[in-house]
Amino acid sequence: MKKIKKIKKAVFPVAGMGTRFLPATKASPKEMLPLVDKPLIQYVVEEAIASGIEEIIMITGRGKYAIEDHFDRSLELESLLEKRNQWQALADLKKISDMCDFWYIRQKEPLGLGHAILKVKDLVGDEPFAVLLGDDIIHSDGEPALSQLMDVHHKMGSSVVAIEEVTRAKVSSYGVVDPEWCMDSMYKIKGLVEKPDIDEAPSNLAVIGRYILTPAIFDALDGVVPDKKGEIQLTAGLNRLCASEAMYGCKFAGKRYDAGDKLGFLIATVEYALRREDLGASFKEYLSSLKF
Ligand code: G1P
After folding, report:
1. Ligand 1, from 30, 31, 135, 172: best to mutate by most atoms within 8 Å of Cβ?
2. 222-256 burial by CB neighbour count: b if 16+ within 10 A, else e?
3. Could you say which architecture CATH assigns to the domain 9-282?
4. How many angstroms separate the CA atoms of 73 and 87, rounded?
5. Residue 3 has what pLDDT?
6. Which residue pairs, CB below 8 angstroms and at least 24 apart, start in 223-231?
7. Which end of the chain is more exposed for a tag (fewer CB within 10 A), N or C?
8. What pLDDT, on the 0 to 100 scale, is given for residue 146?
9. Pairing mode, strands 205-213 and 101-106
């Protein structure tokens, strides 16, 4: 039997311009928008680490230095907190840079998610790896979403994508899977389409930003013809990949927020604040005092 390798590397494509969040993202990366008091990207990095990831490769672009700084040590801040005896804050700060090893690689032009993934071919090497998109924040009371995908990968030895049912009206915002069969929360996938029109969508099962990919994705992406915008879509690479090897979808347990969208971001902010031990009760009291 083929030995399934542990997934150790995770790729974070973070080169996007964040135009949906202008002007907030004019001079700072959308990944650094705070959800309560933590940047969006940190939630996703924490999910990866809680799932067993040991190395994170960020594909960045212009104006993304704040992300590198965030996961680096800040010696000035550390010595200030030390002088002020703020030990808890100091420990929290150090935890961020000690989380795991980070690598950064630049995507020089915004030529699509698939193009970004092709950039990490040499860094990833010949092993399966994870991809996490920072706009999708997934809250889970139990097993992290990425870890649920890893379970399917370990069972089947194939690529796995996270999926969620969306309303028919929303299919045109997502990569959509064409399922062959389904068993509990696992779907065998026979095809995928990126952002189809409602009438052409093969299902209402949307791909959410968590993927486990076998290295065969690189050859599959190499053969993708750029779309009308000149971009190489990851979904197009996945569609090619599932023609040559098995691929599964995992309907994960957990609540997903589209934090790349203004309304989704507001909903996430309210719900994450309500869950907080230090803020939840007083925030709830404030919300119930509002008259609509
Ligand atoms: C990307 C992918 C799409 C996927 C979505 C999940 O789209 O291209 O297939 O369904 O992420 O959030 P984007 O939201 O970057 O337009």
Report:
1. 135
2. eebeeeeeebbbbbbbbbbbbeeebbbbbbbebeb
3. Alpha-Beta Complex (3.90)
4. 16
5. 66
6. 224/114, 226/111, 226/112, 227/112, 227/194, 229/112, 230/111, 231/110, 231/111, 231/112, 231/113, 231/114, 231/115
7. C
8. 98
9. unpaired
Is the Cβ atom of 208 under 6 angstroms away from ligand 1?
yes
Model confidence pLDDT, tens digit, residues 7-25: 999 999 999 888 889 998 8
Note the pLDDT tens digit of each residue in 246-292. Answer: 999 999 999 999 999 999 999 999 999 999 999 999 999 999 999 88
Instruction: Record the pTM.
Output: 0.95
Token digits of residue 216? 């065969």
Q: Residue 177 CB: number of other CB atoms within 10 A?
A: 29
| Ligand 1 near 158 CB (within 6 A) | no
CA distances to 159, 215, 226, 245 from 190, in Å: 12, 19, 21, 10
Quick count: other Cβ atoms within 10 Å of Cβ 2? 5
**250: nearest Cα among 118, 115, 138:** 138
Give the rounded percent of residues in the chain with a pLDDT score beyond 70.
99
pLDDT single digits (tens) 114-169: 999 999 999 999 999 999 999 999 999 999 999 999 999 999 999 999 999 999 99
The DSSP output letter for 202 is S
Residue to mutate (ligand 1; options 149, 174, 252, 258; most atoms within 8 A of CB): 174
